[in-house]
């Protein structure tokens, strides 16, 4: 099922870049509609019900789009999802679209764990080093893990850079035991 979300996300990313849309605004519009669908059981039932005529579903969508100021391409994607009975995939499509747009714009998502809270200067230095290694702009999310003892662990996708004291101790233990 991930391929369904990926397919729609890649296609919509093409639209975003082809129409030179504001990617943040497009994601925001999709998130708004996803939140409405999640919060409103009645809306979800109408849009997912095959007995409700497609033109009525689109009229309802148009009212929401106009009220919330959502861009036309976003409206069109939602209409396609409704018509193709793919609306349940919307949250995963938004998630995949964010990843696709980040990739195309040269961003890397980094999850950074450290033993203590890092200062702003340390964060900037670390992000600069990650950018140098990956060749991409970095969007970092920080967390604390006291078990690291010191240093930091950086995860970008499936790649892990372990610069923690705990990791160094484990590597030393393996070297000694072998």
Description:
There is one protein chain. The protein contains eight helices and four strands. Helix 2 runs antiparallel to helix 6 and helix 4 (54-68) runs antiparallel to helix 5 (72-83). The termini are far apart. The mean pLDDT is 91. With 178 residues, it is α+β, with helices and mostly antiparallel strands. It has two domains: 2-103, N-terminal domain of the delta subunit of the F1F0-ATP synthase (Peroxidase, domain 1), CATH 1.10.520.20; 106-177.
Short description:
This protein has helices spanning 2-18, 23-39, 41-48, 54-68, 72-83, 90-104, 120-134, 165-177, and strands at residues 107-114, 137-144, 152-156, 159-162. The protein has 178 residues and is of the alpha+beta class. The chain has a 4-stranded mixed beta sheet.
């Amino acid at each position: 099922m991930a391929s369904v979300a990926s397919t729609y996300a890649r296609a919509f990313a093409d639209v975003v870049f082809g129409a030179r849309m504001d990617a943040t605004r497009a994601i925001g519009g999709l998130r708004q509609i996803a939140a409405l669908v999640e919060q409103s059981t009645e809306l979800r039932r109408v849009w997912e019900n095959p007995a409700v005529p497609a033109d009525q579903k689109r009229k309802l969508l148009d009212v929401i789009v106009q009220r919330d100021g959502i861009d036309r391409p976003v409206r069109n994607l939602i209409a396609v999802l409704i018509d193709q009975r793919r609306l349940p995939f919307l949250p995963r499509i938004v998630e995949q679209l964010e990843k696709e747009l980040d990739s195309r714009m040269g961003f890397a998502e980094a999850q950074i764990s450290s033993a203590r809270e890092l200062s702003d200067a340390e964060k900037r230095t670390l992000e600069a080093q990650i950018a140098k290694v990956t060749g991409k702009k970095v969007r970092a999310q920080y967390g604390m893990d006291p078990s690291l003892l010191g240093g930091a662990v950086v995860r970008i996708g499936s790649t892990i850079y372990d610069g923690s004291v705990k990791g160094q101790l484990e590597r030393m233990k393996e070297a000694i035991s072998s």
